[in-house]
Specification:
about 350 residues; Rossmann fold; two-stranded parallel ribbon; 10 helices; alpha/beta; 12 strands; single chain; 10-stranded mixed sheet
Length: about 350
């Protein structure tokens, strides 16, 4: 048996060996420089949030995507269903998922329809921007490449953020939403007024399913009209793309895509890998596409090309996450059409 002095000597000897092994390890510098990926919960200013940080050097300034979930969803659920974390790991982006509190809205909807939450510096827009500021303080963020995307109630909040924080956001992508001010601002003048002295072109990719029973096509079109008006663009598309044949949409019976809290997906019954889609591109006088209006034929109120483990997702394409990322990459604050940012 060892005495107390012998035990201390043994401990010191073990610690010395461990320390020497760490110092000698070629992996030690790599651990200091390379981090992630991580997906962690945070108690934020006013609301909780989840933050995805990709692998790589934490000293590199990265683009930041704000994802705003729909009603009855959580941040984790939205991250799982949309696969944004998977894309962010490939592309080296940060993704923050603010989470609505049941105490603020029993259905966990963002309160986009209340006037107190439709202005800058107040209510939930201010809370979400405070979360963004906290992320910016904790991670290196490319301030020219901050984007917002949301679904349903999250789409309407993304539109509010686009109108009230044009100096922060480079572009937005609302899916299944409507015009600013509770769908009323069909001319876009109110959104432009909300920008005030910060007025600038706000690129928007508006996506609407033609078979959506909750946010119908008329509401989706109001969002398109609003952003065309806000950005002073001609309502006639500069160009149009058709992906697939819209006339082929004939929802059938026995749909294998019906899942809990999700709507039937016609594409599953028809054996499609992607719904037909019509995309109207609206460019400004420089030829920069500022508004993309997507009409996905046969899509209901579910996030397309989503993970079935998430709620309100449809496994049938198009891949909304990839399309939104591609649209975002064409826009930076102060650098239209993806031109290099000076300085």
């Amino acid at each position: 048996m060892h005495g107390a002095g012998g035990e201390c000597s043994d401990v010191r000897r073990v610690l010395t060996i461990v320390l020497l092994a760490i110092l000698a390890s070629p992996l030690a510098p790599a651990r200091a420089e390379i981090a992630g990926p991580t997906f962690d919960a945070h108690r934020g200013p006013g609301r909780d949030y989840w933050l995805f940080t990709p692998s790589g050097d934490p000293a590199v300034a990265r683009p930041l995507v704000i994802y705003l979930h729909g009603c009855s969803q959580t941040a984790e659920d939205a991250a799982r269903g949309t696969r944004w974390n998977e894309l962010a790991e490939r592309e080296g982006a940060l993704v923050v998922y603010p989470e609505q509190s049941p105490a603020a809205n029993g259905a966990q909807c963002w309160n986009w329809f209340e006037p107190d939450h439709q202005v800058r510096g107040n209510g939930e827009p201010a809370i979400i921007m405070a979360i963004v500021a906290e992320v910016m303080a904790a991670r290196r963020v490319d301030l020219k490449r901050v984007y917002a995307i949301g679904a349903s109630a999250g789409a309407d909040m993304a539109t509010i953020l686009g109108a009230t924080y044009p100096d922060v956001l480079a572009a937005i992508a609302p899916f299944a939403g409507c015009a600013y001010l509770t769908c009323a601002d069909v001319t876009g003048e109110a959104a432009r007024a909300a920008m005030g002295s910060r007025e600038r072109s706000m690129p928007a990719m508006v996506v609407q399913g033609t078979a959506d029973p909750l946010n119908n096509v008329v509401l989706g079109e109001s969002a398109v009209r609003q952003w065309l008006g806000t950005n002073r663009l001609d309502p006639t598309p500069t160009s149009t793309e058709d992906h697939g044949d819209p006339s082929a949409v004939e929802p059938g019976s026995g749909d294998p895509c019906v899942r809990n809290r999700n709507f039937p997906c016609a594409g599953g019954a028809l054996g499609w890998s992607a719904y037909p889609a019509t995309v109207h591109h609206h460019a400004d006088e420089r030829g920069c596409v500022v508004v993309d209006a997507w009409y996905v034929h046969g899509l209901s109120h579910d996030y397309p090309s989503g993970d079935p483990e998430g709620s309100f997702t449809d496994p049938i394409g198009p891949d909304l996450t990839a399309a939104a990322w591609s649209f975002f990459q064409a826009h930076r604050v102060g650098a239209p059409c993806g031109e290099p940012v000076a300085g």
